[in-house]
Amino acid sequence: MNWHIQGGRVLTDRRLATGDLSVTGGNLTEVRAAHAPVIDADGLLVLPGIVDIHGDGFERQIMPRTGVRFDTALALKDTDRQLVGNGVTTAFHGVTVSWEPGLRSLEAAERLIGVLCDIRDTLACDTRLHLRWETFALDQMAQVIKWLSLVPRPIIALNDHTTGSVLKGASARKIGQMAERSSLSREEYMTLLDRVWSRRDNVAIAIETLAATARANGNVLLAHDEASPEERAHFRALGAKASEFPLTIETAKAARQMGEDVILGAPNVVRGGSHNGALDATDAVRAGLCTVLTSDYHYPSPLHAAFRLSSPGASDFPSIWDLVSANPARVAGFADRGSLVAGRRADLILVDAQDPAHPHVVATMVHGRIVYSSGLLQRRLPVSTPIAAE
């Protein structure tokens, strides 16, 4: 459907300015289509839709309590409503493939990916895959490599939470949580972890094999939880184009010095710090050490983080909004979204920011289709006379 969005403050050309925006055939256009319904956006911000390249909040819809599972299709459809209601127009579901049984097992990933492929075209949000391969999941690697050829191409991230668990590092305090997620006792989990750790000499070659496949296949490759500049250099050489949740300031600096993106969690900003002692995302943004914010585990956070970091009247608001739109779109390899430019997809949101502490999404549009609205009908203006194309 064609639309004409009238009188909103539109984020284009690096600034917010009152103006109109036209949508024709699912794309933004400089020419207003004849008979296009008019949306009165007076008092609203018209912003590029949020591109979320790392989010695993859907896991709570599948298993809201330990050991309590729900139908996968039901969980993904509920997640879809949460995404568009929070202004997310493109989402990459972070599906972890681990050596653990339970929620992050190969079997659970197979079930989720199969359902997502079946229902993807019915979802409101443009929903894709971010495969998070635990590098010690050696027996699961062959299936992960097969999934790299899915269309659209998944993002693939290299994750190592095993080493930290064994060496009493950052992950060690999560052992109880990991055991519960796996439906194992702590003792059973530790026995399994010891068996997995015994194969550590095979991990490096497995990482190289998977990275080479991703490079040849055109998948975006990310490295997760890099602990040092040396690790960043290592994974850079393997083709990892961005540092996802680096563990130290020095690692983030090493990435930015090479012009690479650094990805952190928007909940970190909204909560005023990391829940697990990691980098403070607000400080990292202010220091130029974070270029992308993701939902991580909380879908409302990208929208709210942007408004925590800036306000529509501030000169830096456009660059702050880039953290959740243009920059993640670039990391994901998109050239058709992330900014409100003629010829690009009409992926956009209308936001009521009268209360900047609690911005409210009035409408979400994905490829020109209104997929979510809250009070939008009252803003539709009647077309009493034909509107000629300009």
Describe the structure.
By secondary structure, the protein is α/β, with parallel strands linked by helices. It has 2 domains: 3-47 and 341-381, Urease, subunit C, domain 1, CATH 2.30.40; 49-332, Alpha-Beta Barrel (TIM Barrel), CATH 3.20.20. The chain has helices at 58-62, 72-85, 106-119, 141-147, 162-166, 175-181, 186-197, 203-217, 229-238, 249-257, 266-271, 281-286, 301-309, 317-322, 326-332; strands spanning 3-12, 15-24, 27-29, 38-40, 45-48, 50-55, 88-97, 126-134, 155-159, 221-224, 242-244, 261-265, 292-294, 348-352, 360-366, 369-373, 380-381. The two termini are 18 Å apart. It comes from Mesorhizobium shangrilense. Residues 206-372 form the Amidohydrolase domain. It holds the Pfam family Amidohydro_3. This is Alpha-D-ribose 1-methylphosphonate 5-triphosphate diphosphatase.
Describe, in short, the structure shown:
This protein has helices at 58-62, 72-85, 106-119, 141-147, 162-166, 175-181, 186-197, 203-217, 229-238, 249-257, 266-271, 281-286, 301-309, 317-322, 326-332, and strands at residues 3-12, 15-24, 27-29, 38-40, 45-48, 50-55, 88-97, 126-134, 155-159, 221-224, 242-244, 261-265, 292-294, 348-352, 360-366, 369-373, 380-381.
